[in-house]
Amino acid sequence: MAHKRPRKTARRRKTRSKNNRKRKIIIGAIGLLFVVGFLAGVYWQFTRSRSDLFHTFDDTSFSDKYFVRGVDVSHHNSFINWDQLREENITFVYLKSTEGVTHKDKEYKDNYRLAKNAGLKVGTYHFYSFGVDGKQQAGHFIRSSNVFTDDMIPAIDVEHSKVNIAPKNDASRNEMLKELKELEQALFDHYGKHPVIYTNKDCYRAYIESEFPENPIWICDLRGEPDVASDKWVIWQFSHSGNINGVLNNIDLNYYRYSFTDFKHLLMP
């Protein structure tokens, strides 16, 4: 029976070899997951730091320069305690009401009522859909929105998105601008005030700078004080990741450029 021992030893060695390979595979997989997780965290921090520097009104170097504070809200925001928000020295809020010719923000009516009851100055904005009939977009906004005396002037949100692809040629750009101008004109005719235009630096240069000289500008710049529309911007959106007491998740933060006294120029008569 002595000749059988080598076979048992060989089987044991083969089993140990298989177990060792399994352990190495498991250890390698765990190590790979750790590296991937670490790199993902580094990438997230890197992109967050590059895109959005500020997270409260007090962590900027401008908190002693701009005293009128505001937020903007849509249905994407979660729970907001509006009374607590007012206690955080927030003066104004812009609320999304409509988009295109059919979409209505499902939280708009409740947000409007609650923000007004909390004593905030409330504005309402429309998300412009590129190339869609401007007069129809204006009619949709007017029918769906609350804009009364002492509310803020209505605003139009002009930015690239999944539905707003940058025009590829002059013809599509001209069509986009044609409908935007019809929307702007219809709102001006109805409310008697040129609407505020919200945009970012790229879209300001591409569409707004040379086409809308009469409109107050609400500019988004997450890196620092705006270096475009330097003589025109009146509201600066400086964060998409604001952290404020009374708000469950992130919220957009804004400064009004001038004094509390001047703020009345953004209100409806």
Describe what you observe in this structure:
It contains six helices and nine strands. Helix 4 runs parallel beside helix 5. It folds into two domains: 49 residues; 213 residues, Glycosidases (TIM Barrel, Alpha-Beta Barrel). It is of the alpha/beta class and 269 residues long. The radius of gyration is 27 Å and the shape is globular. The chain starts with a helix and ends in a 13-residue tail after the last strand. The chain has an eight-stranded mixed β-barrel. Helices cover 39% and strands 20% of the residues.
Could you give a short description of this structure?
This protein is α/β, with parallel strands linked by helices and 269 residues long. 39% of the residues lie in helices and 20% in strands.
Output the CATH topology of the largest domain: TIM Barrel
Distance between termini? 108 Å
Q: Helices and strands, in N-to-C order?
A: HEHEEHEHEHEHEEE
CATH class of the largest domain: Alpha Beta
CATH architecture of the largest domain: Alpha-Beta Barrel
Considering the protein shown, what is the CATH homologous superfamily of the largest domain?
Answer: Glycosidases
The low-confidence runs, each spanning 5 or more residues with pLDDT under 50, are 35-50
Strand content: 15-25%
Averaged pLDDT, please? 88
Basic shape = globular
Characteristic key phrases:
269 residues, globular, TIM Barrel, 8-stranded mixed β-barrel, 9 strands, 2 domains, alpha/beta, single chain
Secondary structure layout plus pairing:
Elements: H1 5-51, E1 68-73, H2 82-87, E2 90-99, E3 103-104, H3 108-117, E4 121-127, H4 134-144, E5 155-157, H5 170-191, E6 196-200, H6 201-208, E7 217-220, E8 233-242, E9 251-256
Helix pairs in contact: 4-5
